[in-house]
Amino acid sequence: MCFLTTAGKGIILLMRAVGLNATTFPGKITYRFGKHLPEYLTSGQHVTLITGTNGKTTTARMLCSVYEKAGYKVISNVSGANLISGIITTLIEHRSIYGTDTRIVLEIDEAAFGRYSGVLNPSCIAVTNLFRDQLDRYGELTRTRDLIRKGIGQAGEARIILCADDSLVASLFPDGGENVTFYGISDSGTIDVSGAPQASAETGNCVFCGTMYDYSARTYGHLGIYGCSGCGFTRPLPDIGFSYKHRGNNYYELLLTDDHKTNVIVPVPGEHNVYNAVTAITAALVSGESTDAAVFGISETRAGFGRMEKFEVGGREVCIVLVKNPVGLDRALTFLSNASDAGGVQFILNDKIADGTDVSWIWDVDFESVKIPLPVHVSGSRGFDIALRLKYSGIMERDVRVDTDVSASFDKALLECAKGKCLYIFPNYTSMLELRNYLEKKFRLKGIWE
Question: What phi-psi label fits residue 315: left (phi over 0), alpha (psi between -120 and 50 degrees) or beta?
Fold first, then answer.
């Protein structure tokens, strides 16, 4: 195993020397010759695995910030390469800093979690949420839930962190357990359910008996305080309670309803990032960190590439927001409509394997209820699909600029964005990488592995 680790490190250095990202290939090659590498590379270390549909990368980044500010050396797959090849690449690259003062934080794809969680020796597992995503790959949400439950079953005595507000996540352990910690909105911070759109049949119905949930409060999607009148399944009482308030331009103040009423402005904008912050805080708390240390680490977090990442070029800001499923894009559109600095928008849609080849999910997105700044630029291999969806939402064809060349579309969108404003870009996974590679070269941004 030592030889394979050295060989993998050499491959990484060689690939980076010639300008390649080297986020998955070294791990793919070394794992082919050493199936026990995951166990070897994580043995004796404090490992946190973060899985779920949305928020894995941001939650991992927040938890890394907590540990870094607490004085630990942190290893994490910051590039977002969350299959086993990317995880092994990360562990090989940073093998030299292993020690008792090291924390390993890994985001992991839901299916990969179901297969590899046990061999990664997790001390802590955090499940963020479960929304419809890549139906051609995962099928219905109950299958994704089953994959995660399988992975948890292989993870020994790991501490389990679950979102009580997500009925599918909470149903993994409806009765809790000694190693299970729930987090969720507190009674004092609930949000009125009136006016909230109805949850989909996949998530709004009880996973145990099929009865539609009754909600007393909802935050977004199917998250909130729910109960089933059919079988009696109700939202577990959170061990870590919180509430939050909007503070303008998509920033939110998080209040932990602990003995000290600890509060913090979440530095990464977006309502969904309140949940990501609490996931990271809860993982830190069950791993022995103090509330004050966890909150301080959250306050020092900076957005990762493609996750509310902002940078300035030519007198304009650019904000990249990864979107890959209906709830993710709904959240992004709400974010856009609340952005006081919005000066333009670009949607980029690909249909490669890593994205999910079925892009019909865009018809489940509520484009009609939000204000979208004009003109709109669309791109990617399925750019015309987005253009058609926008047409049916009421946006005139003359206000939509279609160019399947991602970089050319970006240049045009940036040019049409007024100076002093922000161009908001909503790509899915492979289109984000394509755009990010172009921007790295053009504006000398950091590499995705940094």
Answer: left
